[in-house]
Specification:
Blueprint: E1 2-3, H1 15-20, E2 27-29, E3 51-53, H2 61-71, E4 79-81, E5 88-89, E6 102-104, E7 109-110, E8 126-128, E9 135-136, E10 150-152, E11 157-160, E12 174-176, E13 181-185, H3 186-190, H4 195-200, E14 203-205, E15 210-212, E16 220-222, E17 229-230, E18 244-246, E19 251-256, E20 269-271, E21 276-279, E22 293-295, E23 320-322
Parallel strand pairs: 1-2, 2-3, 3-4, 4-6, 5-7, 6-8, 8-10, 9-11, 10-12, 11-13, 12-14, 13-15, 16-18, 17-19, 18-20, 19-21, 20-22, 22-23
Amino acid sequence: MADRDFVNLSAAYNWEQVITSLPSLVELHFQACSLEYTAPLDYDNSTTLKHLYIAHNNFRYKSSISITRWIFQLNNLLYLDLKGNNFVGPIPTISNATKLQHIDLFFNDFNSSIPDWFYLCKDLEFLDLSSNLLSGTISNSVSNLTSLNTLYATSNHLSGKIPKEIANLCQMQWLGLSYNFFKGEISDTFGNMSACFLESLQRLRLQNNSLSGKLSSLEQLWLHANKFTGTLPESFGLLSSLQLLFMKDNMLEGVVTEAHFANLTKLDKFFASGNHLTLNVSPNWNPPFNLTILQIASWSLGAVGSQIPAWLETQKNILNLDLSNTGISGSIPSWV
């Protein structure tokens, strides 16, 4: 490994030739080295480099085009960090670097579309394209990136529809597509999310686009065993096609009212134990749904106090009911 982080190399001109003359070099760090220039390159891809960190430098225009062409021909690269280098021009459309697992191009001035070869990196886990000048669309071929757990492309000029294939990537944890020009119905992309996508996803950012519509076609929502905090949004009540809501074992708190269930006429299974929520509905509430499974262990039953809620009598199809640790007491109603 060669680590030259924070060494002033502003006068270095032939550093790339030095690298290629080291046949056993596997890892190279040039972070914040004030690199500006590079000599003409021969694009030899025979180097054994697997980890390349060239971040926070200040490459001039001609050098930036030359260096990126060289880098993306390195056919053994696994980890690439090029953030904050003032790189300009297009991302090369042809590359031998399809073994990459980590690509960080954050905060440069790349001004091309996303090249097709990105979608051939079947082992890619992390991709950050944020804060560039990228345009065009995200290809449906994103479905090839089955190992991808982080995709950031915020603050670009990307447009078109967000491909629905993204919502089937089972390893996705952080997805950020804010501050672009994406358009179309939000339900076209996220209306039929796979269960594994929902189980994995931790952060989703879509603000400042031109997306429209609603997620009323969503049938299943799996959010369990995460670290969600705060209150449950009343907008859950707008998911009129929702049949299954699995949100147990989080850290949600606050009050859940009739408004949260207003349009959930198709709701069949509701798993929400292991939160700190309070159910506050009227004694005469007649729910719009007819559940087969209801699990709200550890909830407070609000104004109903210590009694088994009367509205449960309307749930004629209940097969699985969990009201443990809700503080209920007293006699068991005759309808149970």
